[in-house]
């Protein structure tokens, strides 16, 4: 199982003029959990996700993935951690529109170590097929539908075989049927493949299939429960 366990302790993230953006005294998630994060606009959901990926510096505290405190690492090491262990899915798929689906799915091969490139291409193609897309297609990604593009983005996130999947409103740009399908697929990746999923989402369909849902308000966790 590739999943990673998360443990947060005394985490504080601050913005301009020292404003508190996130304050999480203690929080833990077991490897292979599908966690949904919800809360009103400005509650700190994206900041929370970014802190989990080491994309924002912590003013204090620890963010440990399998015991490794990424908040204590210098940026190059955090970037290496992200490349090695984290897959991202965004609200807007953020594909390179002029590239084909398999090229987008394997984009990590451009940045990762040379030795792993063939594996990234192979996994990208396999994931596209698994998600119902033809891995032999050469047409531009902007010719795909919104639902298909989001599936290409999921294939891209999985091509590096990440232990951790971070998603920011992954279903928000999709119609109901595609949103339901994607929510099920993301949770399946946690349950069947053991990846740890943290999905910021206001989609009740995603909350319903997650193992756990937390509420954020003013940068703090206010509720933490099974759905
Ligand atoms: N670097 C920063 N400096 C100062 N303030 C920031 C910074 N980054 C975010 N903020 C503020 O922190 C608060 C939380 O932002 P965040 O994007 O995490 O909220 P969110 O819950 O994801 O909101 P939304 O649902 O609208 O995307 C907001 O008020 C935002 O303006």
CATH class: Alpha Beta
Let me know the CATH homologous superfamily. P-loop containing nucleotide triphosphate hydrolases
- The proportion of residues in beta strands is 25-35%
What's the multimeric state?
Answer: single chain
Radius of gyration: 17 Å
Number of domains: 1
Please, could you describe this protein's structure?
By secondary structure, this protein is of the alpha/beta class. The chain has a single domain (32-41, 75-225), classed as P-loop containing nucleotide triphosphate hydrolases (Rossmann fold), CATH 3.40.50.300. Helices cover 32% and strands 26% of the residues. The protein has seven helices and ten strands. A six-stranded mixed β-sheet has the order 6-7-8-3-9-10. Strands 2-1-4-5 form a four-stranded antiparallel β-sheet, covered by helices on one side. Strand 9 and strand 10 (220-225) form a beta hairpin. The chain is globular. The two termini are 24 Å apart. The mean pLDDT is 93.
Can I get a quick summary?
This protein has helices spanning 45-52, 75-85, 101-105, 117-130, 146-158, 176-191, 204-209; strands at residues 6-14, 20-29, 34-38, 60-65, 68-69, 86-89, 164-168, 196-200, 212-217, 220-225. By secondary structure, it is an alpha/beta fold. A six-stranded mixed beta sheet has the order 6-7-8-3-9-10. The chain has a four-stranded antiparallel beta sheet with strand order 2-1-4-5, with helices on one face.
């Amino acid at each position: 199982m590739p999943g990673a366990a998360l443990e947060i302790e005394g985490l504080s993230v601050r913005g301009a003029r020292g404003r508190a953006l996130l304050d999480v005294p203690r929080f833990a998630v077991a490897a292979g959990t599908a966690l949904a994060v919800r809360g009103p606009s400005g509650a700190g959901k994206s900041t929370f996700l970014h802190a989990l990926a080491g994309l924002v510096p912590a003013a204090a505290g620890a963010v440990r993935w399998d015991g490794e405190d990424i908040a204590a690492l210098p940026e190059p090491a955090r970037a290496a951690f992200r490349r090695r262990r984290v897959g991202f899915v965004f609200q807007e798929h953020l594909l390179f529109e002029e590239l084909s689906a398999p090229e987008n799915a394997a984009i990590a091969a451009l940045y990762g170590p040379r030795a792993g490139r063939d594996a990234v291409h192979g996994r990208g193609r396999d994931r596209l097929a698994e998600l119902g897309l033809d891995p032999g297609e050469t047409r531009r990604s902007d010719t795909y539908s919104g639902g298909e593009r989001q599936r290409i983005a999921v294939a891209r996130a999985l091509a590096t075989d990440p232990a951790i999947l971070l998603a920011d409103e992954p279903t928000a740009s999709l119609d109901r049927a595609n949103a339901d399908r994607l929510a099920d697929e993301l949770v399946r990746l946690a349950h069947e493949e053991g990846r740890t999923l943290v999905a910021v989402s206001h989609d009740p369909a995603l909350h319903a299939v997650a193992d756990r849902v937390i509420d954020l308000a003013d940068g703090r966790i206010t509720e933490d429960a099974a759905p």
